[in-house]
Design goal:
Layout: H1 2-15, E1 30-34, E2 37-40, H2 41-55, H3 63-93, H4 100-113, H5 119-128, H6 133-154, H7 162-171, E3 177-178, E4 181-190, H8 199-216, H9 221-228, E5 239-244, H10 250-257, E6 268-269, E7 273-283, E8 286-287, H11 290-320, E9 323-325, H12 328-345
Antiparallel strand pairs: 1-2, 1-9, 3-8, 4-5, 4-7, 6-7
Helix pairs in contact: 1-2, 1-3, 2-3, 3-6, 3-12, 7-11, 11-12
Amino acid sequence: MKSQSRVALAVITALMAVPLAGAAEVIERVLVRVNGDIITKTELEQRQVDALRRSNPEALKTEAALKQALAEVTPRVLVEAIDNLLMLQLGREKNLRLTDEMFTRWLTSMRKEQNLVEDEKFQAALKQEGMTVADLRRNVERQFIIQEVQRSEIGSKLQITEEEARQYYLLHQREFVQPAAVTLREILIEGPTGVEGDAKAAEALEQAREVRARVQGGEDFGKVAQEVSAAASKANGGLIGPLAIQELSQTLQDMLAAMKPGDVTEPLRTARGYQLIRLETRTEETVQPFDSVRDIVADRVFSERQRSELQKFLNRIRAQAIIVWKNDELKNAYEQQVTALHTAGGN
């Protein structure tokens, strides 16, 4: 993947050597100034590669796919780069920084989680990514400052009250429906099926009928399944489910609709032999009560509120920023993406 990234970076560099619209002049190395700070061509190229590695690694394999993918990711990458720079600037105004102790604590935890405790493995991982410890620290500090800025700017607006959660639940009850479901047991008698005059097929069918007669006569279905079934479910007494009814084949849905708990089907032909199915339980579609989904509701309300408040915050700092572009096409791509985000956010 790293070699593909290098190839991609080389292709992106070549593509960026001329304006996206095909004009004659060469793009300047400084692409945009944001409140005096700059974003360079090299930085944009690396961000493009990183975005493609995360979202569309296949695009790194051919130049044609790469061109198409670039057209899709570049507006988003531009907005993300400028948003991050604006938040870093705000973080500097707030004197936010990552201390040596904080970085050491983060690094120790990360190396344990990634199985990179041994220095040799850690250094190899850094080399694979083309990074030094100093590079890693800069990246971690950037993320730390961005997160702290977001927390300080919108954190106080993310408190969710019980009433807000209940109102969300009432407006979105269809999202908290427990679908109708069944629990089944099965017994599989292995053998050929559908072969006229085949003695083994007739024998398998007769055995399935005999097994059905046993369970219909009062023997425990689960114990019989453990004894004779050829299905993997025999270890659990043939138990299958619960299964959402809507996920079953229409034929099976129709069959189960005519059954009540405890009923056993006639032998059913399958690719492997003959199957007996017993309906254990059936539950109808129900709306889950608020108390049982309270945490899920709170998480959804929180996530929606967080997205909304973050978008408002970003809209505000973008509007206050002095952004000077060196390339009109990149400017247009940025502005169109910001407008799309603004419209989607409803702010």
